[in-house]
Amino acid sequence: MPLNRINFPEDLRKLSIQELTTLAEEIRLLILKTVSSTGGHLSSNLGVVELTIALHYVFNTPHDKIIWDVGHQCYTHKILTGRKERFSTLRQDEGISGFPSREESIYDIFGTGHASNSISIAVGLGEAKKRQNETCKIIAVIGDGSLTGGMSFEALNHAGHLKSDIIVVLNDNEMSISKNIGALSSYLNRIMTGEFISTIRERIKNRIKNMPTLYKAARHIEETVKGFITPGMFFEELGFQYFGPLDGHNLPLLIDMLKNVKRLKGPILIHVVTKKGKGYVHAEDNPERFHGISTFEVTTGNSLSGGKQTYTDIFGDAIIELAKRDKKIIAITAAMGLGTGLEKFCKAFPDRFYDIGIAEQHGVTFAAALALAGFKPFVAIYSTFLQRAYDQIILDVCLQKLPVVFAVDRSGIVGQDGPTHHGQFDISYFRHIPHIVVTTPKDENELRHLLYSAYCYERPVVIRYPRGEAVGIPLDNDFSLIPFGTWEMLKEGKGVAILACGNQVYPSLEVARMLEEQGISCTVVDCRFIKPLDREMLITIAKEIPRIVTVEENVLIGGFGSAVMEQLSVDGFALPVKCIGIPDTFLPHGSQKTLRRNIGLDKEGIKKAILDWLRKE
Prior knowledge:
By secondary structure, this protein is α/β, with parallel strands linked by helices. 43% of the residues lie in helices and 14% in strands. The protein is built from 25 helices and 17 strands. The strands form 3 sheets. It has a 7-stranded mixed sheet, sandwiched between helices. The longest helix is centred in the first third of the chain and has 22 residues, at 17-38.
């Protein structure tokens, strides 16, 4: 049992190749067992077991630095770098993160939770290394999905220009290699990276550079051969030495390759082909479903979390209904067809569905152009990922006043994925943009009506909704148009007005009932429009009720509560306002329930905040 003897990479380097192969099998079983009970990113982690072992075996980590992109493929890395005993706490309250975390380990070089930034980080570290005369190796492990992000190409271009001494490992889990071509390619590259061959190659290049005709002919021959054998010509033109594609599950081959490459000067790109879900048949057959998954039964692969439909499900069904009515409706997502609920739409309307890869900036401007031409684009992107397209939202959509609908999934607290994934900033980063409409439904029925209304408004509209199960109320048979910019009063009272938005509306209703038991009469309003506010109702409330409380699942700075206070100030009201929301901090990972309780955004926390405030008054 090699795994029992491994706590850190130095232990790993004492094993034989055969023991490393056994270790890979043990790690795969540990990941499978753990993720089945904690949830997490399974497919990608099963695919990089051998690659991770080889990297830590060959390179002197943490002196040599490995950057993971996307960070969710780091489970084997965590097991090998001192966190094996705590691996069962993966993504749990007070447990280890599902992503690299600088606070957690010196082996986690950068806290990478989003995509496409690893090469930029490597280039920066490479320049620092050069300036400080350091000897460390810098390795960026980037998935083929992350390589679709424009930032990756910007960094590749810069690295080639600087001749950065870095190694980029392209983990390609979409492409397969036939046995014959794979064996030939592996053999050629193992030889070509050898120190002797590499030295001879460079000497020949230097000798014939002074003979332009011969040099040009030699380069042409080299590039032509590479074009036939490998897809590496593109990277070579950017200034990288390209090696691959290699079988990413062949440990001896990977180790030989990395040892040879370790002696070379960068920039170097190693193309490694892996299989998502490797070793677990259900994940191999359906890697997208097991990309990010909740708890499941290992034998069958069936999910253990059932029950109500999620907001994501409701959105996916609703947009299909709308698309049946209007052929100009188009759905766009950024490498998250399943995650945003659009896989059904893709099957129903394949010619009206676009997955643009991890390229949110392009996706938003692409949608703007479609809207300009008279189409009705719905852009479904997670709140935290849409941040990357901020400039495009402002200049390409809102400045142009184009009717693009943003279906912003995972708004608010998302849970176990942690600080890189919480959608806690979207109200703040949308609210101040001219021409935009920002809405948030209290339940799944209102989500459907807001989607239909956004389709009708003919202007840029944001609909933000949370991760997880919806409330569970019955759905109306048809869509209804919600009057533009209006709130809904759900309960009338005289002592305190609770203005709540989104998933905080129903908890606020319960808080109001609890407060009434203590003699505090409460009004509760569903503030489904964050921009524009329902100014008419707000003025009425300000005239009739002496105190206002706002409740939102967004950071308080620049959020819904700020908007209410700004409007009251403009209209000349000076009544006291208490804002309840997410404090000025990055929230850690943990269950949604625990995180809300910890920041006072559950029923008991909201009630306590209101009572404490009233006592101080």
